[in-house]
Amino acid sequence: LGRGIIVTLEAVRFKFQVQVGEIRSLPGLIDNNKGRYAVVIFEDLYMYLNLQGQNRANLDQYCRDFNVGILYLFYFYSKAKIVIAKMVGSFPLRFMSSVRLKDYEINATSPLLRITRPGSVVSTSIVPVPSPNDWTIFLPYHHTYTAVTLASRLKPPKLRKTKRRSNHLNSACGLEKLIPVLLDQGLYDGIQRVFFGNNLKFWLQKVLFLDALSYLSYGRLSLPLERYFQIDIDDIFVGVAESRLLVNDVQALLNFQTELRKNVPGFTYQLGFSGKFIYSGTNLESEGDRMLLKLADNFSWFPHMWSHMQAHWFSNASKLCEYMDINRQFALRHSLNTSSNYAVAPHHAGVYPVHQQLYHCWRKVWNITSTSSEEYPNLRPDHRRKGFIYRNIMVIPRQTCSLFTHTMVLDMYPGGKEVLLESIDGGSLFQSFLYNQVNVFMTHQSNYGNDRLGLFTFDRAMKFLYKWTNLRLVYEPPEVLGKRYFNLYPEEVEPVWSNPCLNRRHLEIWSEEKNCSSFPKFVVVGPQKTGTTALYWFLNMHPHVKSNLPSPTTFEEVQFFSGPNYFKGIDWYMSFFPTPENNTVLFEKSATYFDQKVVPKRLKTLLPSKHIVVILIDPALRAYSWYQHMRSHHDAFALKYSFYETITAHRGVDPDGLISLQRRCLDPGFYANHLENWLDFIQPQFIIIVDGDMLKTDPAAAMFQLQKSLGFTEIYQYNKILKFDERKGFFCQVQPKGKSKCLGQSKGRKYPEMEDESWKYLTKYYEEANLKLFKLLERLKKPIPEWLKKKSK
Ligand SMILES: *[C@@H]1O[C@H](CO)[C@@H](O)[C@H](O)[C@H]1NC(C)=O
Ligand SMILES: *[C@@H]1O[C@H](CO)[C@@H](O)[C@H](O)[C@H]1NC(C)=O
Ligand SMILES: *[C@@H]1O[C@H](CO)[C@@H](O)[C@H](O)[C@H]1NC(C)=O
Ligand SMILES: *[C@@H]1O[C@H](CO)[C@@H](O)[C@H](O)[C@H]1NC(C)=O
Ligand SMILES: *[C@@H]1O[C@H](CO)[C@@H](O)[C@H](O)[C@H]1NC(C)=O
Ligand SMILES: *[C@@H]1O[C@H](CO)[C@@H](O)[C@H](O)[C@H]1NC(C)=O
Ligand SMILES: *[C@@H]1O[C@H](CO)[C@@H](O)[C@H](O)[C@H]1NC(C)=O
Ligand SMILES: [Zn+2]
Predict the structure, then answer these.
(1) Same domain for 655 and 711?
(2) Nearest CA to ligand 3 atom 12
(3) Is 671 exposed, middle or buried (0-12, 13-18, 19+ CB in 10 A)?
(4) Domain limit, last residue, from 150, 183, 216
(5) Atom 6 (ligand 5): residue with closest C-alpha?
(6) Residue ranges of the Heparan sulfate-N-deacetylase N-terminal domain (predicted)?
(7) Which residues are marked as active site?
(8) Considering the domain boundaries, does residue 453 fall inside one?
(9) Which of 79-88, 107-116, 580-589 has the lowest mean pLDDT?
(10) pTM for this structure?
(11) Quick check: is 282 in a domain?
(12) Structural domain harbouring 144
């Protein structure tokens, strides 16, 4: 049941927090004098009744103070075969489990109803009330309680107890009917409650569940009643002979569209065409094709690919664009209206995982602005499909409507026609409309020929929807719909790239020229000014280790996960890595990653189970080094203000530029806080800590440890290749003929030591942060850098 609740909340995209098991303490309910939760849901009423100590009183008080209702579900009790009416804690209410129901109906005057519309009586013969034995019904003894739904008993209960008890069933508040869903209006103790006498498997309970959330949250958790939708008919010319549209089918399609427009103004089918296959059916079907062209102005058209080829088969963008243009010439010849700027890719290929050539050509050839896909982030679970924007093309999630290319005749529906009918009558198609404010449905040409299952399905779906809900269907052209989608879900604008090799379906629609072995095996994430360049250099000396190629703008660093480069996509990222040979280990180093909040999630999604390497030096020294770095880059503020002035500057008093410099000196040094952000996404065993002091004073030892942590089987001996250069004051690489090669001019820069007052100030400033780091590393069982040990004594 818990999963059912979570899936529903995820599907409607309400934010929630879950507590599992016995509740010993409540989560923080109040934040800045604001209530954090709009509704409290108990999967099991007894979890609430058994709250320990002050918890229940505190929760009740919270509900009264912040107008928050409580929702209870009764699933657990149905399992125990309790048939006797029991008191609900101290409430003037009894319940009885294991009751069999029939003739389930909605109380048409219940104030709870919002989306729910009292359709009719659900009798067991029309739509079976699921698990008829599992119902709990409520017996109220106070006028605060009113029925939300009512039902009759399917069979008299097998009560072996006294007659008096069975009388409770019908005599409570004088009701003849049983109450499976009950509303407490708060007249008893000031708290509104809804009791569900079953789980959420029955479709009607799902609708009522959303209404209960809205009611109990005083409207804060409410979806609007509008449902925007679009129906695509893909492959309009692609079907094999004997499965294609005839003249009558085309006429029926247009008639249905006209009919639909009565309820849904402007509704227009989107027809997807691959021009090559026109007139490839029987003679009669060619007449159907001609009819489509004749009525072309009555529909909206979108390009699908000239001969239904998949975009990822083309690596050469010019070739792909040329090929697309053939379909465009077809559209021009036949005056197909493609002004919707919408397109769909055969098999989703190239949309996700992104094939940048496809997006390039879509824009160039067709001026495409929106598309839809089922593949982002994954096909399943379908309620978690999302959208994103890449190169200004809106990708919005597509929903399945139980119709596929091969489902052409109702009586031959896979698994029996009941499967389709169930999906329409409260099942997945119904729920798609219920939960998603924006729906893009994909159907195929073959669903409109034969027995026109596509018309049947949506006709029935809409009748069912109008009968049982107050939802209003609205049509908007694709581009408007796309904009609406991202206005509703602005957090989805930015994509989060996943690893194509972790999803079989993604791998199938990924170019053969792309290969996950060219993703790095580990990433050095910084922070800046801790010796990351030296580490990068040392790692490259290793015969089997290779770094990313340099970037023309950011040099040795790719800076993919942290900044705008991320939106260039993984094709761009992969272009920085050679295809590794044999046992080469690839790595990337971008010191900007460490303290950027967005990085850990992105890195984990693209490179799961890969190590990250963090170098830690004394944060005071790091701050000073950053300051000196900025001076040598002629930063106006670093040149004008002393280090001490910089670190002690005050926001609101000193210039913004100085404050900004100060933050970039000081913020990365809160190592523990940043590490905790990483730990939200990356498991501790994948985080490697390098002692930055050791890397400087004994690099061979540090490199030995690092190789061990990375699990290298062959350890390269750095003491053979690194030699201390007295003149330079650091380690350099031994070259043939006794020469040595050192890091460039700018590295290992010389500058005066930090003055005492800054040193003292920073020691105090970072005292707590360093202690926190010490404890964190201890807890993670990570080696503690020497400098930190000293500080913590
Ligand atoms: C239906 O709900 C209304 C309003 O809450 C209530 O007054 C009425 O008693 C309910 N009807 C039944 C049959 O319980
Ligand atoms: C089809 O389009 C034509 C031309 O735009 C229009 O005159 C006609 O009314 C449309 N028919 C239907 C049924 O929408
Ligand atoms: C890509 O295709 C174009 C046009 O077909 C061709 O001229 C060009 O040489 C191809 N480029 C590569 C790198 O193969
Ligand atoms: C194409 O369709 C759009 C939207 O239905 C309409 O506004 C536009 O006038 C049509 N263009 C042509 C050339 O018929
Ligand atoms: C491309 O589409 C946009 C938005 O619909 C439109 O403003 C623009 O004029 C179109 N450009 C071309 C070249 O058709
Ligand atoms: C990647 O390349 C390796 C070696 O060339 C090959 O064995 C592997 O099958 C390729 N993987 C994919 C997903 O193409
Ligand atoms: C990769 O392995 C093959 C066969 O073992 C070998 O011939 C080749 O030289 C190796 N390549 C590199 C770059 O080490
Ligand atoms: Zn197709």
Answers:
(1) yes
(2) 316
(3) buried
(4) 216
(5) 367
(6) 1-216
(7) 529
(8) yes
(9) 79-88
(10) 0.92
(11) yes
(12) 2-216
